[in-house]
Amino acid sequence: MGGRIGKHKLRCIVCGSEYGPAPIHWCGECGGLLEVVMELPKRSIFVKIRGRRWFVWRYRELLPVDREDCIVSLYEGGTRLLGLGEFNGLSVYVKVEGDNPTGSFKDRGMTVGVSKAVEFGFNKVACASTGNTSASLAAYAARAGLEAFVFLPRGKVARGKLFQAIAYGAKIIEVDGSFDDALRTVVNHVKEGAGAYLLNSVNPYRLEGQKTLAYEVYEQLGSVPDYVFVPVGNAGNISAIWKGFKELRDMDLIDSVPVMVGVQARGAAPLVDMYRGDGVFRPVENPETIATAIRIGNPVNWRKAWSAVSESGGWFLSVSDGEIVRAQLELARRFGILVEPASASAYAGFLKDIDKLDGTVVIVTTGHGLKDPDVLSYWDLQGLV
Ligand SMILES: Cc1ncc(COP(=O)(O)O)c(C=O)c1O
Ligand SMILES: [Zn+2]
Fold first, then answer.
1. CA angle centred on 272, ends 217 and 177, rounded to 5°
2. Burial class (CB in 10 A: 0-12, 13-18, 19+), 262
């Protein structure tokens, strides 16, 4: 590929301790999560970038990879930004992340995460997943010739996603309980020395790939929107997208940053409870929603997401399962965009708060509708079809 590689270090988001590039996830001093701090290139890098192929690695100088020969790609990113036309006096766009190789935004992160696994010399990778992470990990591991281990909450993963993980050859470990239990299990597994590189969104490198959505929106609109609506589960994606916008600002490419709005499903909304309540984070014990991808009660990235929303002047809101599926069908029938229920929650949140908005809005739809055809019976139950 040529060109300069992305110089970086790791920093604890809680105590600020700094580390060199390494396959670590938590701070050795305080146990906090880490973030990547990039040595950002000059803004003129975007002149070069504009001439390149439309995929995640067009931003390679902004990504924390030390060895370009280790890059594992399926040509992810470069997804459509579809206009919905004039909408209550607003300019509204949908970022269609279902366009990615395995049908979700996870591929943006996984291309970087699996490249780092190769660079660090791992031959095994692992994750817990509500489904999409496992599908993505399995595909990138196959591409790289690595063994993939995916820990799934038994009976709680949409069929299309399980089908993908099996097809790409991942080893599947079913865990009784919720996603949060599956994540605890995989974390113990890797801490006990299983020799696998953990690629959940506790992985700071994976989130770097996901920040490229912000760069793409900036390039596609020629500016940044006023608001970005994002579905929130484990809360990594909203944090990553926010980081992308902040980096554009730090490179002096933009003057203002968007307001970030995090949307959770009503039965799995600890960040909404925190926002509406006393500002203290409390996990939800038994998360429940039709939107299985965001059926998460204890989001590991709550601190990062809280900062993203507060620093941007945004907010969190929740939507009911009924609102989610109605929004899902409206996107499909009015605009020809079929997304999975978790992704429709962002559109449902937008519809709910539409009167608060002004200017340009981007709604991030995170996964393809084909992932979860079983939702049809819920549409039926709700009398929608
Ligand atoms: C389709 C979809 N939307 C949203 C999310 C939530 O993303 P995050 O966990 O980064 O908040 C997920 C996570 O699995 C997902 O698969
Ligand atoms: Zn720390």
1. 100
2. buried
Tokens of 331: 């996107």
For 172, phi then psi, to 5°, come to -105, 130
Q: Which helix (H) or strand (E) holds 10?
A: strand 8-12
Contacts of 375 by beta carbon, 8 Å cutoff, 6+ apart: 290, 325, 328, 340, 341
- Residue 60: other Cβ atoms inside 10 A: 19
CA 75/CA 84 separation, integer angstroms: 26
A 10 A CB-CB count for 310 gives 13
* Residue of 105, 151, 368 best suited for mutating to test ligand 1, as the one with most atoms within 8 Å of CB: 105
Could you tell me the pTM of the whole model? 0.97
Q: Which CATH architecture has domain 106-202?
A: 3-Layer(aba) Sandwich (3.40)
Q: Give tens-digit pLDDT for 101-129.
A: 999 999 999 999 999 999 999 999 999 99
| Structural contact between residues 206 and 109, judged by C-beta atoms closer than 8 angstroms | yes
Tens of pLDDT along 247-270? 999 999 999 999 999 999 999 999
Q: Ligand 1: does its nearest atom lie under 6 Å from the Cβ of 237?
A: yes
The burial of 379, by beta-carbon neighbours within 10 Å (0-12 exposed, 13-18 middle, 19 or more buried), is given as middle
Distance 367 CA to ligand 1 centre (A): 8
The confidence score (pLDDT) of residue 31 equals 97
CA separation for the pair 261, 242 (Å, rounded): 10
Burial of residue 340 (CB within 10 Å: 0-12, 13-18, 19+) is buried
Q: Where in the chain is the domain with CATH 3.40.50.1100?
A: 81-104+205-381, 106-202
The verdict on the CB of residue 130 being under 6 Å from ligand 1 is yes
Between the CA of 305 and the centroid of ligand 2 the distance, in Å, is 17
| Domain boundaries 81-104+205-381, CATH class | alpha beta
Q: How many CB atoms lie within 10 A of CB 347?
A: 29
179-192 pLDDT, tens digit per residue, is 999 999 999 999 88
Closest CA to 216 of 351, 133, 95: 95
Return the residue whose CA atom lies nearest to atom 13 of ligand 1.
Answer: 293
